[in-house]
Each structure stands twice: as C-alpha cells, then as structure tokens.
Protein 1
Amino acid sequence: MQCKEREFGRLTDGRSVRLFSFECSDGMQLEITNYGGIITSVRLSDKNGIFDELCCGFPDLSNYLKPHPYFGALVGRYAGRIGGGRLPVGDEVYQLQLHDRHCHLHGVNTGFHTRLWSALLESDDTKAVLKLTYMSPHLEENYPGNLNVTATYTIFDNNRIDLCFEAETDRPTHLNLTNHAYFNLNGFRSSVGDHWLKVDADQVVELNEAMLPTGMLKPVKGSIFDFSELILLSSRLVPQTHELDHCFVLNQSRKDTPAVELFHNETGRSLKVYTDQPGVQVYSGNFLDGSLTGNDSKTYHKHGAICFETQHFADSPNQPSFPSTLLQPGQAFRASTTYLFEVRS
Ligand code: BGC
C-alpha cells in the first residue's frame, strides 16, 4: 500500500486542507480529503486494462467550498430527510434548517461535509488507516449535544475501503451518518441504465409526495423495487421512466453477504457494499443536470451515477415504528460500511 499526503488548498481562514492518496497493490487509486471527509476520486482499470475514474469528484478544493450534491462526502448529523425539520428529543423539539418547504436534508449547506476534520494517517505493508475526527458543538445546526465523531477509513490492498463511524454525545440527540459517494463503473461513458443492480432487501420504505416516509414498509416482491437478483437497470426502465431515490430495508438475516452489488458487464467492474446499517438509500443521480464537471473533465449528467447511502431510514426521529436514531450520553455509536471493487474477466 502506497500512501501520500499533500495540501489540497486552504480555507478562507487560512487552515490547510489535506489530500490523502492511496495506491493498492490490486490497482485501485483512491483520494480522500479531510475537508468533509470526502472521497474525491476512485480509479480502477477494467477487464481490458482501461483505467477510469469511477466516482463523482473535483480536482480542486474550490468546487467543494460551494454547495454541491454531497459528492463523496460524509453526511451528518442526519443523512436523509427529517419532516418539517422537526427534531423531537425528550420533551423538546429542535427546529432544524429546511432544505425545501418539506424537510431538513443532509445538514443542508453547513453539515459535516463542510467541516475540516482532524486527520491521522497510519499505514503498513497491506493497509492504510485514515482516522478523521470532528467535535460538533452543542446546538451546531440546532442539534442538541456536544458530539465527538470519528470516521475511520481503512484501505486494503484488495481494492477494499472500510468506513467506520464512532461517536459519543453529552446530551440525548439523534445521529444518522453516511457517505454520499456517487459511482459509475463505466467511467461516466454511459448513464447507470447499463449497470446491473442487486439489493438484499425484501422491503422498501414507502414515501409520500414530499418524499417523506409514510411510516409504512412496502414489500418489493413483484414491484419495480425487487432487486433480489442482479437486474439490468434499463430493463426496469430505470432511469428512463422510473428514478430511484428510495430507502431499501436491508434483510437482517444477511451475514457476510453484500447489501448491494453493482455490476457493469462491458468493463467487468463490480462494486459490493456491506453494512451493519438497517437501510440503504439508493439514489440514481436524478438531480444531476450536466452543470458540474469534475475529475478528468467528466460532466455529470442526470442519472450519470448512483449512490448507496447506508444508513437508518429517513425521518426516523418522527417515526416511532422505525429503528431508533436516538443516541444517549454514555452510549457508543458505531456504524460501518465496506466498499469492495472487483474486476471480472
Ligand atoms: C437524497 C436525494 C438528494 C440527494 C442529493 C439523496 O440522499 O435522497 O433526494 O437529491 O441525496 O442531495
């Protein structure tokens, strides 16, 4: 494992932002910055030896300092929508900033993706460990509790990235963390319609017109959300007619099986995602509109990439039947996800 560190740029207050680069012996090249804990680049050869960028990202820090669609970022304190921005904790209701008239989403423009995290890099022959820490003060974004968060990326030589979140609070609060990376296994030459998808979920979270959970879980069997086998997305008319922006309820019987598998036949590249979280928000880049150009001068078009945001369900603080996102003082928060890239010949 080869690792390098350099300056990515400076914040307006003069603080240096670092960029960490990793090269695995199996060929993956990865870049992560401590600004927002963002994965800025994932590069890998295909079965014919063509080396491509697979992840939406920018070559310059300046693009990340403006609002962007959470490319590669650590999202918090709450990934996903919270209805009316209403956060009930005990007898209090904390009003969060609104993303639109219906909800708070992803910390809006001042969430964890905009924070400079302290970074510590350690590596040995086979792996590298990048430990990012951030102290989110009580009432930051109006969430209660001083919250100490650690996000540890461990990179292995077999093109595997583990992301483990740990956190503790001094007051009851809600917490739901994820990484919001967007992937295209064909190096952005086509939309995600020519990718195959499998999701280990028998149910999906039912949404209302405002894209908020109704509180009900719907069986996927026989519906367009049934990805229990690898399905070519275009054969489900995704993205031509249907868009994915849904939380799949992961089957809990799963042990070492992936929560999600994404495959691209022409390049042979695949991505497997493993997690201990109850859900995964699958989002088919519906709001990408061709206005952003990133690494290797790739332009990010509608449905040009897909996200797998492993997390709790949206609006859990207001949905008593959902698994709880409440974190109590003295309780250790832990959430982990693995991304494994493979190439089939
Ligand atoms: C949400 C989408 C949103 C996207 C980018 C996803 O997690 O579900 O509705 O557009 O993030 O913010």
Protein 2
Amino acid sequence: MNKTIAVIRGDGIGPEIVGEAIGVLDAAAVKFGHSFTYQEAPMGGNAIDAYGVPLPDESLATCLRSDSVLLGAVGGPKWDSQPSANRPERGLLKLRSSMGLYTNVRPARMFDDLSSACPLRADIAARGIDFVVVRELIGGVYFGEHSTSEAGGEQKATDIMAYSEHEVRRVARVAFDMARKRRKRVTSVDKANVLDTSRLWRRVVTEVAAEYPDVELLHMYVDNAAMQIVRDPSQFDVVVTENLFGDILSDEASQITGSIGMIPSSSMGEGTRGLYEPIHGSAPDIAGQNKANPIGTILAAAMMLRYSFDMPAEADAIESAVDQTLKAGYRCGDIMNEGCTLLGCKEMGAEIRKRI
Ligand code: IPM
Ligand code: MG
C-alpha cells in the first residue's frame, strides 16, 4: 500500500523522536512491502518563528490531504510570552478541531519489564494497570468563548464550557465500542453534582449504554476518579470523559505506569485519518542532546498503522520490536534501571529497527 503521512516534527525533542519513528516506519514498510511518503507540516513554536503563526494554512492543508498525521511535540518556554491566541498550543487545538478529531485515546498500560518504575505501592501495582482514557477532544471549555475584561479597576476572565448531546454521544459510542473489545466496562467521569454540562454528559452516556447491554457502565465524579486512579487503577478498563477532565486524568494515568515517555495516543474523528503523537511534551531541557526516549512516538506510529491504515501485522511487528528491545535490557534515561544498558534516542531507534 502507498500512504502519505503528514509529519509535524514540532519543537524541543520533537524532531529527534519523530526522526526515529520514521526510521521504524520505513523498516516496517520494507518488511511488508509498503511505501510511505512523508510531507513536512511545520507547526508550533518553530512555525511562529518562521511564519508568524503556530499553524500555517499550508501545514493544515498538508494534514487534511494526508492519510494520517504523525506529531512529535510542540511548545517551549521560548514562546511563553506569545499572546494567548498565538501560542504553539493554539496550533495543536486548531489542528484537532479542523480535522474533526473528537476522540483522543490514551492507553495507560504498565509494561512488564518496567514495573519497577511504577510509583505506586507494590501491592497496588501487582493488581495490574491496563486501562484506556477516551477523552472528548474538540468541545468543552477548550473551545468555548474565552474572554478577559476590565471592570471596577480589576480584570475578570471567563471561559465557557458547553456540550451538545451529539458531541457526547459520538465519543461515548467510541468508548463503548472499545470496551466491547476489552474487559467490557466503561467508567464515565463527570462532575454531575455541580455542572450542567456533566448532567447532560451523564444522561447521554446512559442512553448510549442502552445500545450496549453487554458492557457495564459506571459513573464517577472526577475528584473521586483522580483518587481511584492511584488507589486502585485495576478497577478501570475504559474511562470516558470530557476534554478538560480527560487532559488532567490522562496525565495522571500515564504517570502511574512509570513511563510517560512510552505512551502513545491517537486522535480520530469520522474517517480513518488520525493524528498520532506521544503524550509527553517537548522537553526543551533535554532537546538536541540525543537523550529523549523515542518509544512513545514509535508506538504512536504503530497505532497509526493499526487504526488508520488497517495494518495490524505491521503494528504488531513494531510493538513486539519495542518489547524485545526492552527485554534485551536497553533503556533510555527516563526508564533506566540498574543492570540495564543506557541508550540515546538514536541508538534506541536503531535497536528497535533491527528487531522489525
Ligand atoms: C495534551 C496537551 C494539550 C492539551 C496542550 C498542549 C494544549 O496538554 O495534549 O494533553 O491540553 O490538550
Ligand atoms: Mg495534557
């Protein structure tokens, strides 16, 4: 198959980790007889420097023409003083909404070989961590009206959180479909004791659940969910929640696996075109030093093959190459253990490529 992949290298460690993911994609292409064409789409701080905006129209067009998008990471302290409408993150939000990517999937799975990195008590970790956060990505307070005004000698700021039924229904269906292929349990997270948007969320999710009698539905308040994720993560299978709650809980969920550098994510809408990225940030402190862990981005590339290109064998080959590399004792700095071999970003990419 021929596929065109839009590539957003981004800022900080972005170019390094994306470079290694492309190397792994190319190794899979050779092995399985595919051809991947890469088209650069500048976005983030580097695009602000070069073009004055975080997401140039040309980059957006390249993404919309592609079969899928691979992204490293955007942002950094250099652009913190940008007006809020022109921050690197705005590019990412505009890209998500222009591509209609309403579902963001972030797995929280502990790798067997990395269980010593888990920050939870050993008896809690031993029960296993294997759940998925399904986050609504283009609604809620992220996309409501934002405003700051001046009154009575002080500033006042407002951010509107809004949800319509169809926005809840479509992401809820994704969560239930996913649960069907897993342990058949959906935990819907909201703040229905306080927010109208959450009451609407809860009602619509409950309606959708009626279409899935084989899947169990539980509702949980977001404050309790934040606590339960560290108290007993083994209770979760699929967690579905609105945009801001999902942003917060997915960072928490990734951190308890001990290896935020290893976790990929996918963002999808109605078609097969998706946006695939690691969930970590641009790590400007280690940028350009060959220290970043490329595994999150490499696993994101595997997700792209699985979910957007329907290439499960190819995705398996990448995931198993990552497993074997870890089993062989190779580590990057963020997941380093005693007795293992420390590798740089490039060397980690090469070890994984070798095992495809
Ligand atoms: C994420 C990030 C983004 C978000 C930022 C960079 C806008 O934190 O992908 O989780 O809040 O969605
Ligand atoms: Mg986040």
